[in-house]
Amino acid sequence: MAIVLGPNQYGKAENRVVRTQRDTPRHEIRDINVSSALRGDFSAAHLEGDQSAVLPTDTQKNTAYAYAKEQGLTSIEDYGLALARHYVDDVEPVQGARIEIEEFAWERVSIDGVEHDHTWVRRGQEVRLAAVTVEGTADAQQTWVTGGLKDLVILKSTGSEFHGFLTDPYTTLVPTTDRVMATSLVATWHYSSLDVDWEAAYAGVKNVLVRTFAEVHSLALQQTLFQMGKRVLEAYGFIAEVRLSAPNKHHFLYDLGRFGLENANEVFHADDRPYGLIQASVLRDDAPAAGPAWDAYTGLV
Amino acid sequence: MAIVLGPNQYGKAENRVVRTQRDTPRHEIRDINVSSALRGDFSAAHLEGDQSAVLPTDTQKNTAYAYAKEQGLTSIEDYGLALARHYVDDVEPVQGARIEIEEFAWERVSIDGVEHDHTWVRRGQEVRLAAVTVEGTADAQQTWVTGGLKDLVILKSTGSEFHGFLTDPYTTLVPTTDRVMATSLVATWHYSSLDVDWEAAYAGVKNVLVRTFAEVHSLALQQTLFQMGKRVLEAYGFIAEVRLSAPNKHHFLYDLGRFGLENANEVFHADDRPYGLIQASVLRDDAPAAGPAWDAYTGLV
Amino acid sequence: MAIVLGPNQYGKAENRVVRTQRDTPRHEIRDINVSSALRGDFSAAHLEGDQSAVLPTDTQKNTAYAYAKEQGLTSIEDYGLALARHYVDDVEPVQGARIEIEEFAWERVSIDGVEHDHTWVRRGQEVRLAAVTVEGTADAQQTWVTGGLKDLVILKSTGSEFHGFLTDPYTTLVPTTDRVMATSLVATWHYSSLDVDWEAAYAGVKNVLVRTFAEVHSLALQQTLFQMGKRVLEAYGFIAEVRLSAPNKHHFLYDLGRFGLENANEVFHADDRPYGLIQASVLRDDAPAAGPAWDAYTGLV
Amino acid sequence: MAIVLGPNQYGKAENRVVRTQRDTPRHEIRDINVSSALRGDFSAAHLEGDQSAVLPTDTQKNTAYAYAKEQGLTSIEDYGLALARHYVDDVEPVQGARIEIEEFAWERVSIDGVEHDHTWVRRGQEVRLAAVTVEGTADAQQTWVTGGLKDLVILKSTGSEFHGFLTDPYTTLVPTTDRVMATSLVATWHYSSLDVDWEAAYAGVKNVLVRTFAEVHSLALQQTLFQMGKRVLEAYGFIAEVRLSAPNKHHFLYDLGRFGLENANEVFHADDRPYGLIQASVLRDDAPAAGPAWDAYTGLV
User: Which InterPro entries does the UniProt entry name for this protein (chains A, B, C, D) (predicted)?
Assistant: First the structure.
């Protein structure tokens, strides 16, 4: 029996790159948190402390900022592809690279209906996600791209039921035909093509997710999530799979009867913990294997 | 020499009250985090453990939820006034009450341009604040109301200079005539009247703050903040004082010259810590004394 | 082509269970955050909103608290095993269960060298982790247990070098033979046996990890991590694999030469982001397959 | 009526200074988060954007690191005093300076009972606090120093009652003669002398606070807090006032009777929000005026 090195990766996490474009008086801005991880044979570093195959994480930091200039930053998927391919193609010991990106959206300030050229307010709503994985070189090169979002907090004040569930001796929940349903959605999706208008795809997927949450009369959060994933796949042929993780942000009806007050689903306590947590994948039955598409580095995607 | 009890207060912090209105198919929602603190002679509780003058914090929790039904929750200032007056007027040992509220805004989901009746997405931008303090009863009763906001992240990519500053042997900063200026603004303001349309006032003040940040060509964050406060006071005669606390969220130009790349204010590192922190009050020279308007309980306001 | 439901699980996350033992005047306390996830054929809930196979997450909450009484809570691994087996053995539709636990340690208050019977201070150092996965019933039942820790912040002020690394056009890092090395360690390990003294094993593994970090003269964080994992495996035959995730918490030497001051590795800026992030597995070459041991539900392990 | 500038201050917040001493093989380490604020007539900066009186916050950052070398960092109070006096004495426009410090404690790693020379684990328990305010120069100079701690989580599993409280129509709380009492203590104290052994004083005050929490049979958190403050004042003649802020971290008895289980104060749900929050000052009746001792800049103290 011997003790051996197993799977490993290393990189620079959470580079906070802000990129403006100022070729004209009307500036543009992109604001991201990017992490890069390199995979390959780094056993000498682990076993002997020999760094000769190790490109420093400091270099990866420099590269993240330099590529925001050299390659531009007009969509996080393209930027991530450029970075991942660079490491695999240009740095000899690197056999695979994983780039994970969070993007924070800004909205242009409007003054009397006119958009300001160079001032923005952070939108603050959901965080956009992307992850790019590239493995191998030349003809053997394979690429996986996922998009996503997190922290999209969405709520409906009716149109949600929960009853008919399995019971056991520990079950005390009262069935309901009308409840508040709310979640802080995490959704990621695997693109089966690289020939995608990333900006339009992101906006479109978000729109389908939100719209479906609103439109589906819900018998369970599970049912709503499946419909959300299904409708994304129906709308976008270049998406192979959608993964959803949805905490059930409980809104408990507050017992006001003790004070002689009726509470017809009007006053709730929004509780923190514990919370229900539903996770599901929705995919095409002919979807290509996900491979390392969802093998996370920092937990972003 | 004796050891004595000094100023004290107690209450229930961070009640997460969500209130819907569902009288018609088009529902409404308000989502708040409310804290109540009571002030008065509670020395028996401290000195002898005698609770006979102490209304439990659990009761304050119940009251926060009950008042969302009884009094409604159509503006946080009115709701806060109702709660504060209740404690001072109805609970004998209470001589003063402080209500602090954070409000989280939701925006209605739109489907094909039509607003949905009962589904919303958390806006996620700034958090609205209010604090109400009531002291004394009947003719001796005094009331202070402050409004505010926090977490409003705003940035301009040009139109900001910083030079001509004082130097000493520890000064290494390079003057600049063009930099990114960004902050996560906290602003609070003291209403000198209670006869205010709170919703309109909040929207208006936020608009003035954002607009002024955009419009003022900045020679220093201090200068921008003073103008922001000044224009709020000019626009709203019923506001006596504005207090601003603004972290300078540094965006450092990344040195790309090392890689043969020009960086003409295009690529920045958004740093976390440390950060400059500027705080200032702007007020009318005939402003009434602020009294306990800003004597915080939970640090919300 | 059809759209189908892929892998899914659901449960109640972050139940904050505190269990005291008070059979004698000297009380004991265990303080945990426990999440349970159920796996099985829940397609009816997703596809049709039919809950008849779904044990509510509310029931899982009740069960977490009830089992702290019924089964006791003397080690998180045994408690997790009892919960996981209960779901798989007693709830018919459940084919697999995953229990993830964080434990917060308390230390007894000492007064004049005498330990107090019923007062503790939260230790506050690392958080202990465990995850139990059970699949199948009767003879086909399989069980995986991992232990772990997170948030163990450890630093050495010398005995760490970093040089001889690969360079490319983006490399600007200066090699060093003496630097501060610090991390906030996450380590998890897979037990190949269930016949383990869990409390002793945890204390022992933590001790080996800390001791090895101190004793190894480091040429790279990678090398230190491999040694940490290797020595755990050498010391504990019932551990098959160790996984380590270590952010390099950078301590940058502050340039005091600008002020005529020498800085011989004495004054550092502890930076927040970005950070190097090294991840590695160390295992026996005859280790059993990890199976779902590390298939996380909440990201705890 | 004119609009004028009110009270203002500015500085550099949250400088993360780490200072090692390595004169001998046995190193020492101090790890702090320090903020400095300057007060004076900075109206030209606010009103006209004229920075000629403004020492940049970047300079304050440099100074914080430089002083960790020049003045050393053997106690945060002495380091804070040196910084504050420097700004007031050496920088002409500065009339007052406020230095706020958080300190994170490290404990030396022990290997087989022998302390390691240069490896530590972050203790992780409470955060130590200090704030220094200096106003005026030469004979007119006044100085205030407060010490403190935060995040000290302490719990007793019995020895706490709560009954006999005031009731009103919203009161539903059940009185109890035996409950868990827990808090995450914030305590700050005002030193009436500068001739203090700061390290011994801090350790002593913490010890009195913890011991008193344990020893007092509690009829209310208020009563416990008053005793904690009183005993600190009795023990340390050079402390004039103690301020305590204590969230009541509720541990709710879980209703296990529904499952046929007895719960004799053994199984609790540790709730997050809302929480009771008790704040009180305990002082000598001849205490000097606190002046600006507690006028916070960053909310640290």
Answer: Uricase
CA distance A118 to chain D (A): 21
Q: What CA–CA distance (Å, rounded) separates C252 from A60?
A: 17
Q: Specify the amino acid at residue A227.
A: Q
- The answer to whether the peptide bond before residue A274 is cis (omega within 30 degrees of 0) is yes
- Whether C216 and C235 have beta carbons less than 8 Å apart is answered as no
What is the CB-side half-sphere exposure of residue B183 using CA atoms within 13 A?
23
Range of the domain at C87: 9-140
Query: C1 in a domain, yes or no?
Result: no
Scanning the structure block, which residue is given the tokens 């965006």?
A: B251
CB A187 within 8 A of CB A148: yes
Peptide bond into A7 cis (omega under 30): no
Residue C268 is nearest to which of D18, D155, D214, comparing CB atoms? D18
Integer angstrom CA distances of residue C243 from A254, A298, B297, C148, C301: 45, 15, 45, 9, 10
Instruction: Give the confidence band of C299 by pLDDT, cuts at 50, 70, 90.
Output: confident
Q: Write out pLDDT tens, residues C207-261.
A: 999 999 999 999 999 999 999 999 999 999 999 999 999 999 999 999 999 999 9
> Exposure of B204 by Cβ count < 10 A (0-12 exposed, 13-18 middle, 19+ buried)?
middle
pLDDT in tens, A128-138: 999 999 999 99
Pairing status of strand D275-284 against strand B3-21: antiparallel
Domain assignment present for D1 = no
Q: CATH number for the domain including A200?
A: 3.10.270.10
Q: Select the residue from A267, A269, A271, A272 to test the B interface by mutation, using most B Cβ atoms within 10 A.
A: A267
Beta carbons of B100 and B32 less than 8 angstroms apart = no
D183 and D229 belong to one structural domain: yes
Q: Is the pLDDT of residue A146 over 80?
A: yes
In 3D, which of D28, D79, D292 has the Cα closest to residue D198?
A: D79
